[in-house]
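Archive transcription. Copying these from loose printouts into the bound notebook so they stop getting lost. Printout 1 of 2:
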Amino acid sequence: MQKFDAIIIGSGQGGTPLAGKLAAKGWKTAIIEQRYVGGTCINDGCTPTKAMIACAEVANTVLHSNRWGVHCVGFNVDMPFVVGRKNNIVEEFRNGINTRLDETPNLTLFMGTAVFTGPKSIKVMGEELGEEHKLTAEYIFINTGTTPYIPPIKGIDKVPYLTSTTILDQVVVPKELIILGGSYVALELGQLYLRLGSSVIILEAASQLLSKEDPDVSVVIRNMLEQEGMQIHTNASATEVSKTDNSIAVTATIEGKPQTLQGTHLLVATGRKPQTAALELHKTNVLTNDKGFIQVNEKLETSAPGIYALGDVNGGPAFTHISYNDHLLVYKNLFESANLSTKDRQLPYCMFTDPQLGRIGLSEQAALKKGLPFKVAKLPMNKVARAVETGHTTGFIKALVHEYDNTILGAAIIGKEGGELVSVLQMAMLGGITATQVRDMIFAHPLYAESLNNLFMSLDQ
C-alpha cells in the first residue's frame, strides 16, 4: 500500500491543476487517469471541436465569399486534413500536460482504472495485464467527468450510431446526418458538419431548441441554422432506429405524428452521464443521486469527509471553466481559509455556433421566477456598426437591468464573438458597474464592445 497525502482520480480541468498546486505545497500527490490526460475538454470536447469549427467557418466564408465581392469557383473539403489538424492540436495540448505532470516534484501519475477498496483506499488496475497499485490518502478528489448518454431507444444497440466523441474521427463527411438532441453540443456539431457538406436533420424532444434559454434566443438560433439549410424538428421524440444496407432509419413522433427519416449517419447528442460506475463508491460513504452524479455540498465535499468531487461528475454546470474554478475553490479553502462556496458564483458560458451565443447571469425566465423587478435592454446586431462593417449582422445583444439600482443582472448575446463581448458585461457585473456607467463608458471605436453604449441608451428611450 502506497501512502499519499492526496489522490486525484481523473486528469481533467479540475484534477490536473489541483494536482500541481497540492504537489507544490509539498503534498505527496497521486493522480490517476484511465484514458488520456486532459479530460474531456482536451481530448473530446472544447479543443477538438473548436479546431474543426474553425475549418468549417472558413468553408462557409468561401461558400458565401460573393457577399464580400470575392468570387471563388468551387472548393473541396479535405476531411482527412481537417481531422489531422484537429488531432495534431489535441496531441500538442495533451503532450504539454503529460510533460508538466511528469516534471512536477511530489506528483506521481498512474495510468489505469481507479476502484475504491475502502473509505480511503484505492486500487489502480494498470494498462498492462496484471498491473495493480494500491494507494491510500486522507484527501481524495474525484474528477472523472461524464460520458455520452445513450437513451434506451428501440434498436439503438443494433445501429452504428455516433457520439460527440466518435464523430470527430470521421475522415469522410457524413452525407446525411440525423442528430438526436437540440442543445449546445448538438447544434455546434450540426452546424460544423452542415458547413463541411452534410445534410443535417435535428430532432429535439422539447418544444424549442436550447430549452434552458429564453424563447427569443431559441428563435434566432433556429432561424439562423434553418437559413443555412439545417432541417430542425422540435417536439420530436425518436422511438425506434434501424439499419438498412445504405442508411439508418429513425422513426420519431414529431408534433404528435409518427414519421420515418432516413440518413447515412446518426449522431446521438442527448446529454451525458457521470463516470462513477467503475469507482465502486458503495465501498465508501460517498452518496450519488438517482442518475449517478456524486452529491456534494457548497464546498464540493461529498458525504464522506475528505473526499471531494470536482467538475461534471458532481452534477453541476457541465463546463470546463467551472471544473477549473472548482479546483480553485477547493485549493483556496484548504490552504488560504478562503471559505469559498459554489453558491451564487458567476456562470458564464458560450455556445460556439457561428454566430456565437454568449451568456452570463439571469435569463428573463429566471428573473421572473425570482420575482425580481427588471427592465430589458436589447439591440439587434444589424444596428451595431462593427457588425454591419464586417457583414455579420445576425443576432442581438440583450441585457437584464435591475429596475431600481441599474445593476446588470444578466445578458445573452447572439453575434460574432458573442462570448468575448459577454465577458465585458461579466466583469461589469462582478465589479458592480451599473448599466448607466457602461452606457457612458469610452470604448475604442469601432469595436463590438462599443455597442454597449447604445444597448443601454435604449433604456432611456
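Printout 2 of 2:
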Amino acid sequence: MSRRPRSLPTLLLAVALLAGCGRPDDAAAGSDTLRISVSADAGEVLNPYASNQGPIQELRSSLVFEGLTALDPAGKTEWRLATGMTPNADRTQWTITLRPGVKFSDGTEFTSADVVSSIKYLRDPAHAAQGLALIQMIDPSTVRAVDKLTVRVGLTEPFSPFKDIWTSVLLPMTKTGSAPAKPIGTGPFAVKSFAGGRESTVERFGGYWGKKPKLAAVQLIEYQSQQAQANALLSGRVDIASNTTPTIAKSLVGRGGIQLLDSKGTFSLQIGLDTAVAPFRDVRVRQALRLLVDRRQIVSNVFSGYARIANDYETTTPQCAAPDIPQRAPDIAAAKRLLAEAEQSDLSFAITTDGLLPGMSELAQVFAQNAALAGVKVTVNVVPTPELLAKWGQWPAFVDYNPVPYLPSVLGGLLPDRVGNAAHWNNAAFAGLAGELFRSPEQQQCPLMNRMHEIEYTDGPYIIPAFSDVLLPHRAAVQGLVPDVNGRPLSFLTEVTVG
C-alpha cells in the first residue's frame, strides 16, 4: 500500500532552494516550463525518506532522485544508478555495480559511499523511512563499499527479487549527509523552490548523466479540489490537470483543444478493513462485504468506464497468467447469511478517506449504496489529509491506493509487522508462501504468487473492486507524454515539450 504515518511539521514555510548545477543549460533543447495542477497536501515535505508520502511528494521525488533500478512505462525493471547486481550462491549477499560518471545536482560525484549511506539511513528504524519495509531483509552491518563503484550488501535471508525492489520511488539514492535536510539527488531535475501545500518548481539539471529533459522546468501547483484543477486547465493557468475525476476528465476532452492521456494498467483504489478489530477480524464479515460490491457499477459510476473489474487480490505480475479464481459477483443473500453467522446482521461502520485521489470518495459512496441492499449501514467519513495520515493505521475502514507491482505490495503492506500494513493482516500461510517466493528463482515464482492471490481472495483485508485507468487531461500544446502501466506517467517527462 502507499500510505504511511508521518510526523507533520508544526509550521510549513516557503523555502527557496538554490539548485547549484541544476540551473537550465543552453545546450538542452527547449526552454519551456510545464505547469501541472496537483491535489494540495499541507503535510508534504522535501525529505525523500519521509515516513509518509502522498502522490505529489512521490511525483517530485521521481523527478529529483533516482534509485538503483527503475520501472519503465511498460512495467519492466531497468538499470538506473546500478548497472549490475550479482548474488552469491544462496542469494544472501549481493554485489552492486554502479554507473560511472554520475553527478549530484550540486555537481559532486556519486559513488559507492552515497549508496552505503543511503541504504543505512533507510534501514535504520529510528528514521521511520517509508521504504524501510521493502529492505528489512538487509543486514545494515554488512553494507560496505568495495571500491568507488562497487557495493556489497548482506541479507538476513535469501532474497531473489533484489533487483526489483530498488525500482521503488521510496528507495532513492541521496548524497551522503544531505537527506532529509536538502534535496540533493542525481535525477534529471533539481529543486528550485518549494512552498509546502502551495507549489514547487524543479528545473532541468544540466549535469544529468542520462538524456536531458527538453523542458526547462516543471511547476507543481496545488489546488484544494479536483474541480479547481479542471478550471485551472480550462483557463490556461496549467498545462496538465493531474488529479481530476474520470467524469471531469471526460467532460474536458475537446474543450479548448484539451486532450486526454489514458494510462491503462494496474493502479487500484481499495477499501481496507482493519483485521485486528471487531467486526473485521471475522473473515465472514470481510467475505460478506466483498459479496455486496457491484463491480460493474463501480467501473461505470466511479470510473466512467475507465477501469476493469478486479477480484479482491492485488495485481498479477505481467509475466504470470492470472490465477484460476472465480470472479466474485454480488450475492446479497449469501452476504446476509455470512453476516448472520458472524452475529453482525445490524452491521454499521464508517469508511474514512481524504478524497485526495480521483474516485476515492466516490468509491466509498457507491459501496455504501451497495451495502444498504443487505441492511448494512455505511457512512463516508471525509477528513483532511493531515488528519488521515496522522492516524494512519488506526482507521477501522479506509480507502487506500496502490500503484506498485506485486512484490513491493507484499513486502510493504501484506506481511505482518510492516509499516504499510494498515489493515494489520497476519496470515501465516500467506507469509510462508511469501518467504518461499523470495527464495525462489524467477521461473518458479508465478505458481507461488497465484497461491498467494487465492489467500488474498478468501481471507485478505482489502476489497479491490477495479483496476482504474490514470487519466491526464492536458493542453494540446503538451507533446511527448507516454502512458504508464503503474499509473505514474508524469515520472517520464524527458521527451515532453510545451508548444
